[in-house]
Amino acid sequence: MTKTRKPLQKYRRVVIKIGSALLVDRATGLKKAWLDAMCADIAALRAKGVDVLVVSSGAIALGRTVLKLPAGALKLEESQAAAAVGQIALARAWSESLSTDAIVAGQVLLTLGDTEERRRYLNARATINQLLKLGAVPIINENDTVATTEIRYGDNDRLAARVATMVGADLLVLLSDIDGLYTAPPHLDPDARFLDTIAEITPEIEAMAGGAASELSRGGMRTKIDAGKIATTAGCAMIIASGKPDHPLAAIEEGARSSWFAPSGAPVTARKTWIAGQLLPAGTLSIDVGAEEALRSGKSLLPAGVREVKGTFSRGDTIAILGASGREIARGLAGYDADEARQIAGKKSAEIATILGYAGRAAMVHRDDLVMTGKRADERDGRRDEVHA
């Protein structure tokens, strides 16, 4: 897996995420000239044989302009109404602009459940892949008309990363009102340094993330770093760049400032990509040093190494695994319900039948259902352990 940046046209499949503030002006609505220029960039990439998918924000922002809703936070039902109106206008705008280059747009609205539940995830992937096969450009957004606070992505950065891993993209481009990653929020710290290349998302990199900078945006650098973790773990590179200039993709090609995140050199399998990218783990298992070493050497997580069980989860749910330091080091599918996991935590596998009254699985999380999501200090310093993810 290459660790060096290459031109956009050299990638096979690219997902482009576009922030609301780029597409919609709070006072005047859709920025049609910008959208037309963006679509010209997409057409240029496609002409070079690149598959292009778009994750487009802007439905709520556009809908609230059409409905003349006041500035400031919206109630849930107001957001859903704005999305209902905005989605129609947004889809029409994309369709018209892409049609200039004889490109067909296909709208795909996803909810959190469509990517978190395995069967729905596979169905969504099949639909998007068929659109690409037929030569269309999928225009993807969260289905804000039905999503609620508790069951939503809440930002399109992480949605775009999940889409990128879902379709096997090799590049994710996040276009927003900031041109890349800085060591601190540049609007707060005049001494903040710009980072051109990020070889790996370490805890230090995560600590640099700030909050959202615009009323039209629900994301911020925090969600972009989260997106980067999802994408790069799956072997997908990521770019954060400003979308403010006309022809933003052409600007990246011409050397405009942007931050490039290198893909993992050992991407996980498609099924484990789905596990690693889960946004809402149902619970957590805290483990000891010995169990952590076992996981890093490619072994399953046994009950004996589990020190604490938190959350309410069922067998087969995705859970986060915390190492001895308290940081997440892995995710996996639970081999037991939460109540049973608490009963056998810290016990030897041979004791399971006596405790539970039946002969269960020897592993709390089997290695085939587990993926490492974090590295420890010696690995980040270059002394890499062998991890079978």
Description:
By secondary structure, the protein is of the alpha/beta class. It is built from 15 helices and 17 strands. The strands form 4 sheets. The protein has an 8-stranded mixed β-sheet, with helices on both faces. The protein has a 5-stranded mixed β-sheet with strand order 14-13-15-16-17, with helices on both faces. The protein has a two-stranded antiparallel ribbon with strand order 2-3. A hairpin with a 5-residue loop joins strand 15 and strand 16. Helix 7 packs parallel to helix 9. The longest helix is centred in the first third of the chain and has 24 residues. It is globular, with a radius of gyration of 22 Å. The C terminus is likely disordered.
Structure class: alpha/beta
The biggest sheet, with number of strands, parallel, antiparallel or mixed sense and barrel status, is: 8 strands, mixed
Which geometry do the CA atoms define?
globular
Strand order of the largest sheet: 5-6-4-1-7-11-12-10
End-to-end separation in angstroms reads 16 Å
Brief synopsis:
The chain has helices at 20-23, 32-47, 59-66, 76-99, 112-116, 118-133, 156-166, 203-207, 221-233, 248-253, 270-276, 289-296, 338-344, 352-356, 377-380, and strands spanning 13-18, 24-25, 29-30, 51-56, 105-110, 137-142, 171-176, 181-182, 194-195, 197-198, 237-242, 258-261, 283-287, 306-311, 318-322, 328-333, 370-372. By secondary structure, it is an alpha/beta fold.
Descriptors for this entry?
disordered C terminus; 19% strand; 389 residues; alpha/beta; single chain
Topology:
Layout: E1 13-18, H1 20-23, E2 24-25, E3 29-30, H2 32-47, E4 51-56, H3 59-66, H4 76-99, E5 105-110, H5 112-116, H6 118-133, E6 137-142, H7 156-166, E7 171-176, E8 181-182, E9 194-195, E10 197-198, H8 203-207, H9 221-233, E11 237-242, H10 248-253, E12 258-261, H11 270-276, E13 283-287, H12 289-296, E14 306-311, E15 318-322, E16 328-333, H13 338-344, H14 352-356, E17 370-372, H15 377-380
Parallel strand pairs: 1-4, 1-7, 4-6, 5-6, 7-11, 10-12, 13-15
Antiparallel strand pairs: 2-3, 8-9, 11-12, 13-14, 15-16, 16-17
Helix pairs in contact: 2-4, 3-4, 7-9
